[in-house]
Design a protein that fits this description.
Strand order of the largest sheet: 2-1-5-6-9-10-4-3
Structural class: alpha+beta
Shape: elongated
Number of helices: 5
Strand content: 25-35%
Number of domains: 2
Order of helices and strands: EEHEEEEEEEEHEHHEHEE
Helix content: 10-25%
Largest sheet: 8 strands, mixed
Radius of gyration: 24 Å
Number of strands: 14
């Protein structure tokens, strides 16, 4: 029996879970049919259609929520009241200690006029409705303590702080990076022109560079110069005058450039999975 619940928005920091119903219906496909393949989360990895990110030992992370550690029955929850419908924050199901979550945005809470089939007849309804996706935004399997998800932006409102996994560089950090000694700014390029995708890459690049010894940094810069000679300046720095220049530099710091062994074609890896 599947238990269907919602979390509603309450003033302050209080958390309130409400019961919707118990049902035999398949709200989502079985989790092991959905998660055909999973890989550890990485900002530099793009998923194929059948793949999910996985966070192992999720109960030990800072993003774990108390709901997942509790043992409860549906009788422990109050039923959702009609006047609370517009307060729904997210929806979740529980079956055999498998939790499936879906973020419910305002666009998912609608009022529709519908003709529905009930039993052997039809009925006209004018009522509020909550639209569910074909697959959940996140799945937590208690038996293996793994959280599966596809888009981290879809679950940041459910697991507080998890957005730190794809931290975006602040304006100050972006400015500091552009003022590094190995960068020469061109065409009046500035921090204000750096958009979100590159800000994420800057946060990753700063972490990468901070972990490298001086010799390793020198090798990285030499490697970037070989693949992006147009970025090199007379001052032996990288000239950054556009978002595209910055993107190439950041890809180079993450060693995304490679040459095919057959044909010698130079390429950029848009997605990487660590072996």
């Amino acid at each position: 029996m599947r238990q269907l619940y919602v979390k509603i928005r309450k003033p302050g920091n209080s958390v309130k879970f409400k019961k919707l119903l118990s049902t035999q219906a398949d709200v989502y496909p079985a989790w092991d049919q959905l998660v055909e393949a999973n890989i550890p989360y990485s900002l530099g990895t793009s998923l194929d259609d059948h793949e999910w990110f996985a966070l192992d030992q999720f109960s030990k992370s800072d993003y774990f929520i108390d709901l997942l550690s509790e043992t409860f029955e549906s009788v422990d929850f109050e039923s959702l009241a009609y006047n609370e419908f517009n307060l729904i924050d997210y929806f979740f199901t529980i079956e055999n200690n498998v939790f499936c979550f879906q973020k419910i945005s305002k666009s998912r809470l609608v009022r529709r006029k519908m003709v529905v089939h009930i039993g052997e007849g039809f009925k006209f309804e004018d009522c509020p409705a909550m639209i569910l996706n074909d697959i959940p935004d996140a799945i937590y399997v208690k038996a293996n303590d793994i959280l599966y998800f596809r888009k981290i932006s879809s679950i940041t409102g459910i697991f507080k702080g998890i957005d730190q996994l794809y931290r975006e560089a602040s304006a100050e950090e972006t400015s500091e990076f552009l003022n590094e000694s190995f960068i020469t700014l061109l065409n009046n390029f500035s921090c204000d022109q750096v958009k979100k995708p590159n800000r994420k890459k800057i946060a990753l690049a700063k972490d990468t560079l901070s972990s490298l010894e001086a010799n390793d940094r020198a090798q990285i810069f030499s490697y970037i110069g070989q693949y992006c000679p147009n970025l090199k300046t007379d001052q032996n720095t990288f000239g950054i005058g556009s978002e595209e220049d910055l993107r190439l530099l950041l890809w180079g710091i993450e060693q995304r450039f490679y040459t095919t062994p057959v044909g010698g074609e130079r390429r950029i890896a848009n997605s990487v999975i660590q072996m």
